């Protein structure tokens, strides 16, 4: 399937019709205060319209300030946060959501995700997300780090199919079967850790591709994500890298190079395994 990729303002359409910008800024590990405020401001100045945070990153207030400082209309910025593992369960999820809104200084979120599938709790948590969605406090709801069987658990009790599944995704962890399952059910796939926690820069194959297209290694990987139909949120707090990461709309990877990257898949995780993680210390 060919995905329409035009420019930094481009979007993929979620299963409820909401347009989600396909390139965003991730802020994991960006320190609250000046570092994250600047990162958000620089990204928005460069034309990004999507920022992804979470309570466990401890920088929601800085993200909110960066958005405020940009002076962009609220509806122009797609803001994502997540419910953390210790806040699972119906009532606790509602409270956690309200706290995120307060930290971000916002009236609503564009997307709210279940951060990890905490065993025995994530279906109740999903029902709380459905309630927030029905109350129009959030424009779209989804999950993060859910494998097929966990998605099936949710879909069995859900009135509303998740709109997004945000997964560790990079050349060593493609999980094509999971991508296919999500596409079949119109669940938008999204990448975290697209650059393999920096390990991608050590791969000679990507140096060759970067030379071939006269692009950086990061630009090759991010372009690969978008051509796969995968939304991606590279993390950086450096102005030049934020700008450079978005310079991926003046070239296209050939089908053979897309397949070459697909074939690098080793089912190798750098982050925790969704089937086997210590929920209290996953980050």
Automatic annotation (TrEMBL):
Sites marked Lowers pKa of active site Tyr: 82
Gene3D superfamilies the record matches: NADP-dependent oxidoreductase domain
Entry-linked InterPro entries: AKR (IPR020471), Aldo/ket_reductase_CS (IPR018170), NAD(P)_OxRdtase_dom_sf (IPR036812), NADP_OxRdtase_dom (IPR023210)
Domain called NADP-dependent oxidoreductase: residue spans: 31-264
Highest taxon listed in the record's lineage: Bacteria
Active-site feature positions: 57
Binding site for substrate: 115
GO molecular function: oxidoreductase activity, acting on the CH-OH group of donors, NAD or NADP as acceptor
Keywords on record: NADP, Oxidoreductase
Signal sequence segment: none
The keyword Transferase is annotated on this UniProt entry: no
Family affiliation: Belongs to the aldo/keto reductase family.
Record PANTHER family: 2,5-DIKETO-D-GLUCONIC ACID REDUCTASE, NADP-DEPENDENT OXIDOREDUCTASE DOMAIN-CONTAINING PROTEIN
Name this polypeptide is given: Aldo/keto reductase
Species, as recorded: Hyunsoonleella flava
């Amino acid at each position: 399937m060919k995905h329409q990729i035009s420019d930094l303002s481009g979007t993929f359409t979620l299963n409820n019709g909401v347009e989600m910008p396909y390139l965003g800024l991730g802020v994991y590990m960006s320190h609250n205060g000046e570092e994250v405020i600047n990162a958000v401001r620089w990204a928005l100045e460069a034309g990004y319209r999507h920022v992804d945070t979470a309570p466990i990153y401890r920088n929601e207030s800085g993200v909110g300030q960066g958005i405020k400082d940009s002076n962009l209309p609220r509806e122009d910025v797609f803001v994502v946060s997540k419910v953390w593992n210790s806040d699972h369960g119906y009532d606790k999820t509602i409270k956690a959501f309200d706290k995120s809104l307060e930290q971000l200084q916002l009236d609503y979120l564009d997307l709210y995700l279940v951060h990890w599938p905490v065993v025995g709790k994530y279906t109740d948590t999903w029902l709380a997300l459905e309630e927030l969605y029905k109350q129009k406090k959030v424009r779209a709801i989804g999950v993060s780090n859910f494998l097929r069987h966990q998605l099936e658990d949710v879909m069995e009790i859900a009135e509303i199919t998740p709109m997004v599944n945000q997964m560790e995704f990079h050349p060593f962890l493609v999980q094509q079967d999971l991508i296919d399952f999500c596409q079949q059910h119109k669940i938008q796939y999204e990448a975290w850790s697209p650059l393999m926690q920096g390990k991608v820069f050590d791969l000679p194959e990507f140096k060759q591709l970067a030379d071939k297209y006269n692009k950086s290694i990061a630009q090759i990987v991010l372009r690969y994500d978008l051509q796969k139909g995968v939304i991606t949120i590279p993390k950086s707090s450096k102005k030049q890298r934020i700008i450079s990461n978005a310079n991926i709309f003046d070239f296209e990877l050939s089908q053979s190079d897309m397949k070459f990257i697909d074939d690098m898949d080793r089912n190798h995780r750098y982050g925790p395994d969704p089937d086997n993680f210590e929920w209290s210390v996953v980050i």
